[in-house]
Write a structure and sequence with these properties.
Length: 257
């Protein structure tokens, strides 16, 4: 149940369209639903503004099916990350309208329309090899109701490609910078803009990259102010953080109207 559904239920109680016992029954599983193998958090959209997201790695097909089956009972959109093609084929059996994004390995099930933000999140990536993580960020941000733009393959090895797209940087409210190798892209972007930059180190790179640790350390040691860093390959986490920032911007703009 999201805030809109809860508000509608309370309005119906106030107008005597729904009695108190019926309302209580509707709310009995609101905090969470214990399905044995998992406790599905039905309250997260009320607390955080976004519903729970299913992280598929490490879960069996039966576990994922049970969790999604339970989540389908709510009116929330459903997002599943790190999902294989096999998982998607199983999900299609219980949710025929599910959409699969193969590059970031994400499944999206739309159960309600979201009003798209006016403020924009821009996802910037260093190289084409960083695109799976960049797309995880972009797809997540879109699923959470954000207007999203992409600017890919603009790494510092050919910095003129980035400098030729300064208009896109200027139009964004929040920027997600995704890069592997030495991870310098986040510092360059952070030095060009007056908005928050969320840096995502990727595991792309040769041996001394240490699976993304070199990019992580570069981003943590950025000399550009206003750069925050998430974990290696965590495009989802970057998008979630960017979405919460964007939501505050949207709320501030509505309050000033």
């Amino acid at each position: 149940m999201n805030k809109k559904d809860l508000r509608e239920l309370l309005e119906k109680v106030r107008s005597n369209e729904v009695d108190i016992e019926t309302a209580l029954n509707s709310l009995k599983d609101l905090p969470y639903k214990d399905i044995g193998l998992a406790r599905v958090d039905n309250h997260r959209s009320l607390r955080n503004g976004f519903p729970e997201v299913i992280y598929c790695e490490g879960k069996s097909l039966e576990e994922i099916k049970a969790i999604i089956t339970e989540m389908l009972k709510t009116n929330n959109n459903i997002l599943a990350s790190r999902a294989s093609q096999e998982i998607f084929e199983m999900v299609k059996e219980i949710a025929p309208d599910a959409i699969y994004h193969p590059r970031p390995k994400m499944i999206f099930i739309k159960q309600q329309e979201l009003e798209e933000t006016n403020s924009k999140i821009l996802v910037v990536s260093g190289g084409t090899s960083d695109m799976p993580v960049a797309e995880e960020a972009a797809v997540t941000a879109e699923a959470l109701g954000n207007k999203v733009d992409r600017l890919y393959d603009v790494g510092v090895a050919g910095i003129h490609r980035l400098l030729g797209s300064l208009d896109k940087l200027d139009q964004a409210s929040v920027i997600i910078a995704v890069a592997g190798m030495e991870g310098a892209l986040a510092s360059v972007v952070g030095g060009l803009v007056d908005k928050p930059v969320i840096a995502v180190p990727t595991s792309v790179g040769y041996g001394a990259n240490f699976g993304g640790v070199s990019a992580l350390l570069t981003m943590l040691n950025s000399c550009a102010s206003g750069v925050g860093v998430v974990n290696i390959d965590n495009g989802f986490g970057a998008a979630y953080l960017a979405s919460t920032i964007n939501l505050q911007i949207e709320n501030a703009l509505k309050g000033s109207d």
